[in-house]
Design goal:
By secondary structure, the protein is an alpha/beta fold. The protein has helices at 81-97, 120-127, 137-143, 154-168, 224-239, 245-256, 281-295, and strands at residues 18-20, 25-28, 36-40, 74-79, 105-110, 132-133, 176-180, 186-190, 194-198, 205-206, 212-213, 265-267, 274-276, 279-280.
């Protein structure tokens, strides 16, 4: 019988990231220019009038059954706290039935409408089941009945995030609270006592008049928070460090800011490296990390 060498056979690629959320395709109507259709995002940033014209089709663990997605290294959830608890239980049961015995990393982004004080107990229960809990600063404040309508208080953000960490991860020390705070950057709070602010990639400038002007590269913030979480998840896989992973998330978000819709994906002719909007992701990551080193020296 002829022996077959399987060691050199190509192995199937492991899925690194799968999201149990939703994808929104926008139709954006402007008052003085042509309508844009099929824009990936969620045009909440335009704010004048927003509504769904088709039913929301949510992704559930059952949709992963029989696919490589069930064995993903990281899962992202967009859910209310009780929904998150149920989804995680169903997901882990499905993985067990599929013969997968290792635990995935789970990143949970709360549904904005669920961020109210009456849900805090459920939030703490759900946080204990994930690796990363990541609301934005507005959602975090809303969980405690607070609003930043008169300006963002970063010390208060830190306080709320610490409460979430101590109440949610009180019986374990392997998770982190990661707050996405728009132009203020991101805050990482974890055990052992860690509280680090990571600046946004594009910084606003303050004029002599006192007026703050956004960086000219920022075109549309839609999707930047989601891009951050995808980049953060990959960064956590690469570094196993909650703080270092924020650099990956920050760089991913920077590409989402540069246009309406998705950035342009291409390849460098010489190196074959993947580039977005004409810029290599690895080089931008290095540039950002160097900027952090200079700031801390």
């Amino acid at each position: 019988m002829e022996s077959v060498d399987t060691t050199s056979a190509p192995q199937p690629t492991r899925i690194k990231f799968a999201s149990l959320g939703l994808v929104v395709l926008d139709e954006i109507h402007f008052p003085s220019r042509a309508t844009q259709r099929d824009v990936v995002g969620g045009s909440g940033s335009y704010g004048k009038c927003f509504h769904y014209v088709t039913p929301i089709l949510g992704i559930k663990p059952k949709h992963f059954q029989g696919t490589p997605l069930v064995d993903s290294l990281t899962f992202h959830l967009l859910a209310e706290p009780e929904e998150a608890i149920d989804t995680i239980r169903r997901l882990l049961k499905l993985r067990n039935q599929s013969g997968i015995d290792h635990h995935p990393r789970i990143t949970w982004e709360p549904r904005p409408s669920s961020c109210v004080p009456s849900n805090l107990t459920s939030f703490y229960r759900a946080i204990a089941m994930v690796d990363v809990f990541s609301p934005n600063h507005i959602e975090l404040a809303a969980c405690f009945g607070h609003s930043f309508a008169k300006g963002v208080d970063l010390k208060l953000v830190e306080s709320f995030a610490t409460t979430m960490l101590e109440s949610g991860f009180k019986d374990c020390y392997g998770g982190a609270i990661v707050i996405r705070a728009a132009e203020h950057g991101s805050l990482v709070v974890a055990h052992p006592p860690t509280q680090i602010w990571c600046p946004a990639f594009y910084q606003s400038t303050k004029q002599d008049s006192g007026l703050t002007v956004p960086h000219p590269k920022i075109i549309d913030p839609t999707g930047a928070g989601n891009a951050f979480l995808g980049g953060y998840a990959i960064g956590l896989q690469e570094t196993s460090d909650f703080v270092k992973a924020a650099s990956y998330g920050t760089v991913a978000a920077s590409f989402a800011l540069e246009q309406i819709g998705l950035p342009v994906l291409d390849k460098d002719i010489c190196s074959g490296e993947e580039v977005w909007n004409g810029c290599g992701t690895i080089q931008r990551l290095k540039d950002y990390e160097n900027r952090l080193k200079e700031k801390n020296t």
